[in-house]
Structure formats: structure tokens, C-alpha cells
Amino acid sequence: MSESGVLKRSTILIHGSIGMPLAIIGYPLVVYLPPFYAQEVGLNMALMALVLVFARITDVITDPLIGTLSDRWQTRFGRRKPWLVMGVPLMLIGTIMIFMPPDGIGIAHLLFWTVLMYLGWTMVTLPYGAWGAELSNLYHQRSRVVASREGFVLIGLFLAALAPAIVQALGARYQAGHTDGFLMESAVWLFGKNGELGIGYGPILAVMAWLMIILLPLTVFLVVARVKEAPPQSVQRTDWKKGLRVLKNNGPFKRMILMLLVVVMGESFRNALSVFFMQHVIQIQAQIGLMYLLYFGVGILGIPFWLFVGKRIGKHKAFCLALGISSISILGMFFLQAGQLTAFALMFCVKGFCFAAFQFLPLSMLADIVDLDTARSKEHRTGLFFAIAGMAQKMAMALGLGLSLGLLALVGFDAKEVEHSANQLLSLRMLYILGPVLLYMTAFAIAWKYPLTAARQERIHQWVERRKVRLAVTS
Fold it and tell me: Which residues contact 420 (CB under 8 A, 6 or more apart)?
């Protein structure tokens, strides 16, 4: 970190690169994992939803523990870096066992390896997020740091959407009898099963696993080797129980966490039903990969726009604008009928454009909240703040996923069936449209009166800097 707090572009870009593999694993967990385990592995959908929720609940223990330890633990290697290095192997082995499971597995396999993978994910993401918040103490520099990371997240999501489109095209060629050639033989070896390449969700998850195997170690190595950690700002150890009591009195943090919880729950709810909606209501299964390719491609283009809007009207109001536009686009999908590919693609792209704002604006706001806590407490609890935020995000993802799949099972929708009744399809349509919109509007109401503006954050920052100078003079 420079003296002025202004960061080099190379530092911001290298640090943000870990967002790419993190997105590649997060996207299929919500989008492709449920239909794969329900339709191809044959697990009960309601039981699977319960397992995925339970696996996320373990973060209630691991998130604050690892967040606090990464604040305290000082080594020659740094505070944050050791956790990333230790978390990578756990993430990789868990991903492989979940995305490329052996034959004959049951619900216990999914539970064990999901819990292990989430533990590794926590060890990587929480110290990594806290590290990013500490790179600069300037309001808009933090927006650049978070926007870079979320830009790489969107690139990862774009790759995660491109890969299924390619694998599905190769699978279709293989099924049509084009089984020769180096490319096809390599695809069968890497993504196929029993010496064949299908067109289901199994090959899609396999290609995601290979992307993780390549990109996660590479990006973590680059960041650990090339980006310096900010020096610890407090020699006083943080009591995490005391820290939790302080968080209870932090109004902006409570509002931001509630906002994050609701919007992530809405996103997870919608994502878990998207494949089913496209497959059975709009009936465009062959174009699902293409739809996500467009969705995340447009999302990448939206990053500069939402950065600009956040600078002009404030981060929280830009976030509210994105929520409103997203809700309108999703409501429009209620009137679509089977085969209306172009209309659905347009509305899906509008939602993807707003997705960029959902990705980086709340986390950028969280970095500003850390300054408020520092001004009040004279301590630096960045890891604890990001631990609580990460825990809220993960629990929201699990609740959205579990609630959507549970309600889908409750209305009698069986993912293993090819044909569904008109009432089942209407129920799926209602859940896909109304569920996320209600949650988005709730997040809108919470975010609109968010109090920590750019002007207030600048006053807090100047206050903290003046106190540092006074302490230095006194010393």
C-alpha cells in the first residue's frame, strides 16, 4: 500500500484475479449442482436441499474463527497469506469429489465433501477479502479494489458459462457419431464417463472442476508472491466475543448485513430455479449455456457503468437502482411462453447487467464500515467484519437454495420427470418470478436509508489519520 493510499493498477489487477476461480466454483454449485444430483445421480431434491443448507450452517463456527485468527496470526509470511495457501488443497479435493463423483454415491458423500470444500473456501475467501479491504483506506480506491475482484468474478462466471456451451456442443457431436480426433478424445478423457461424452450436467461440472484445478493454485500463487499485505495497524489482540458485541452497536453494519443477506438469498433462490425454468417453462435447454454466456458477458460490461453511478449518486443508491431494474426485468419473464428465446434473452441480459452491481457495491460499502469501527474502537477488526459478512452471504445462499428447492418439491415438481402438469409449471413460474422480486424489494427498502455516504466516510478517514499523527507525535 502506498503512503497516499493510491494503488498501482497492477496491484489491483493481480489481487483481484483470485475472484476468477472463486466464481467458477460458486456458479455451478447453485445452477448446475441441483439438477445434476436430482436428475442424473437420483438424489431426493428436498433431502439434497436440506444437506446443502446444513453444510453451509457449519460456517457459523468456521467463519468468525478463521476471520479472527487471520486478524491475530502474525508470521514472517504475513497474516492473510498462510490461510490462502492452506485452504487451496481443501477446496480442490472437495470440488473434485462433488463435481466428479464416483458411481453409486449417496447423500452422505455430498454432505461430507461439501462441508470440506466450504471449509477450504472459508480459509481462502475471508482472509482474501480482509486483505483487499486493507490495501487502501480511501473510499473510491476501495471501490476500485472491489470492482477489480468482482470484474474477475464476472470473467470467471463468463468462463463458467462458456465452458458448458463448448462441452454441450462437443457432446452433441459425439452423440451424432463424430467420435474421432484428438479434441474429441481429449474431451472424452477429461469430461466423459465410461468412455463416452454425454450432453447432461455431469460433463459441465467436470469441466468446472478442471478449470478450478488449473486457475485456483495459479492465481493464489501470483497474489501471494506479488501483492504485499498492509502492515498490522493494531498490536492489541481482538477478542471476537467483544467484537461481536461492538458489531451489534454498529448501525451501518447491521443494515448492510441485512441488505446483503436478503439480496444474496434472492439471487440464490432465482439461480437454483433458472435451469428448471429455462428447461421446462421456456423450453430452451439446448441454449442454457448460451444464455449464461450472454448474462455474464453483459455483466462484465456493466462494471464501469455501476462504478460511475456509485460515484455520482452514492453506492447504496446505485445498488437500489440495480435492484429496481432487476425486478422489472424478472417480472417481464412472467408473461413469456415456451420458445420465446429472444425475449427471454433480452430480459436475462438486463438482469445480468445489474448483477455486476450486486457483486461489488455491498462489499465496497463494507470496507467503509471498517473505518467507522476503527474510529470508534481504535482497533482494526477487518477480518472479523468480513467473516460476519461472508457468513451472512453463505447462509443466504444456502437458505435461498434450500427454500427454492424445498418449495419446488412441495408443489409436486419432480426433476426426474420429463413431462409436467400445467399446475406444476405454473408453480415453477410463480416461484421463479415472485420469490426473488419480493426479496429484491425488501433489500431496496433496507438499503435506501443507508447512512454511510462518501462525505461521511471521508470525515471518518480524516479523523483516523489525525489520531495516528497525534499518537506518533506523542510517541
Answer: 280, 413, 414, 428
Rounded (to 5) percent helix, strand, coil in the chain: 80, 0, 20
For residue 337, give the 3-state DSSP assignment. coil
- Is 3's pLDDT higher than 60? no
pTM: 0.73
Beta partners for 196?
Answer: 193
Burial of residue 168 (CB within 10 Å: 0-12, 13-18, 19+) is: buried
The backbone torsions φ and ψ at residue 196, rounded to the nearest 5 degrees and listed phi first, read: -135, 160
Strand partners, 193: 196
| Domains, the chain, with CATH or none | 16-229+237-467 (1.20.1250.20)
pLDDT at 235: 40
Local structure of 196: helix, strand or coil: strand
**Which pLDDT band, with edges at 50, 70 and 90, does 45 fall under?**
confident
Question: Is 255 within 8 Å of 315 (Cβ atoms)?
Answer: no
Provide the residue type at 138 as one letter: L
Half-sphere exposure of 177 (CA within 13 A, CB side): 0
CA 473 – CA 458 distance, rounded (Å): 23
Q: In sequence order, what are the residues at sequence separation of 6 or more whose Cβ sits closer than 8 angstroms to the Cβ of residue 160? A: 23, 24, 27, 28, 208, 211, 292, 296
R_g of the chain, CA atoms, integer Å: 22
Exposure b/e, 189-215, CB count within 10 A at least 16 = b: eebbeeeebbbebbbbbbbbbbbbeeb
